[in-house]
Design a protein that fits this description.
Elements: H1 3-15, H2 19-37, H3 44-54, H4 56-64, H5 87-100, E1 109-112, E2 123-125, E3 128-132, H6 135-145, E4 159-162, E5 165-168, H7 169-172, H8 176-185
Parallel strand pairs: 1-3
Antiparallel strand pairs: 2-3, 4-5
Length: 202
C-alpha cells in the first residue's frame, strides 16, 4: 500500500472509530516518511525516532497545543533502552513496534478517543501512559506536510485541521513551509512536564 493510501485509510478508520487500525496506518506512514528523510540510515528505530523529533513542531500543536515535547521526558515509564524516553521513543517502541510485529499494544499504554476535534486528554501514572487520540492526526500531519512526500498525490475530500483551519490533503502534500505559520500560531504556549518519576509515590 502506498503512503498516500495509508494516510487516507487512517483517516477513514479513525472517523469510523477504528482507532487501532488508524494508528497502524499512521505509524506505517511515518515509517515511509522516515525512510525517505534518512535514506542512508539502516537502523529503523534511529530514523523513525529522529523523524518524529524533527517534526515535533507539527506534532505539538496537532496533538493539543501546550506541551513541550522537545524537553518533556516521560520518566514515569521505562522502555527497553531508556528510563527517560521522549514521546518519539514511546511511539516507536510501544505503538509502532507492537503493531508492526503483530502484537497488541500493552494495556498500560493506550489511545484515549477524542469525542471532538479539540479534545486533548493525557493520563499519566506510574508505569502507564495514555495518550490523546489526536496523536493519530499528528502523525498523519507529519506524513502529509513533510517535504520528502511532496511527490505523493491523492484525490477526495480528506483533510487535516488545526485551529479552525482545514488543509485538504490532496493540496497539501509536502508543504511544510506553508504549514509552519499555522503551527506556530497554534503553539505559542509550550510547557515542559517534569518530575513524572514521582507519580504514584508518597
Amino acid at each position: 500500500m502506498k503512503l498516500a493510501e495509508q494516510v487516507l485509510c487512517a483517516i477513514d478508520d479513525a472517523s469510523a472509530g477504528k482507532f487501532d487500525s488508524a494508528l497502524l496506518h499512521s505509524c506505517i506512514a511515518i515509517d515511509a516518511t522516515a525512510r525517505r528523510l534518512s535514506p542512508g540510515e539502516n537502523r529503523v528505530g534511529v530514523r523513525y525516532v529522529q523523524c518524529l523529533r524533527n517534526y515535533y513542531w507539527i506534532i505539538e500543536p496537532m496533538i493539543g497545543a501546550g506541551l513541550n515535547l522537545v524537553e518533556t521526558k516521560f520518566t514515569n515509564i521505562h522502555l527497553r533502552n531508556t528510563s527517560a524516553p521522549d514521546l518519539a521513543e514511546v511511539i516507536y517502541e510501544i505503538l509502532r513496534c507492537s503493531h508492526a510485529h503483530g502484537d497488541e499494544v500493552p494495556q498500560q499504554y493506550s489511545i484515549i478517543p477524542s469525542p471532538d476535534p479539540g479534545y486533548t486528554r493525557w493520563e499519566l501514572k506510574k508505569d502507564e501512559l495514555h495518550m490523546p487520540g489526536r496523536i493519530i492526526w499528528a502523525l498523519l500531519g507529519v506524513a502529509v506536510f513533510s517535504k520528502v512526500n511532496v511527490s505523493e498525490s491523492s484525490v477526495g475530500t480528506h483533510y487535516l485541521a488545526l485551529g479552525g483551519d482545514q488543509f485538504p490533503i490532496a493540496d497539501w502534500w509536502g508543504r511544510e513551509d506553508d504549514f509552519r505559520p499555522f503551527a506556530d500560531k497554534s503553539n505559542q504556549t509550550r510547557v515542559k512536564m517534569d518530575g513524572l518519576e514521582r507519580l504514584g509515590t508518597t
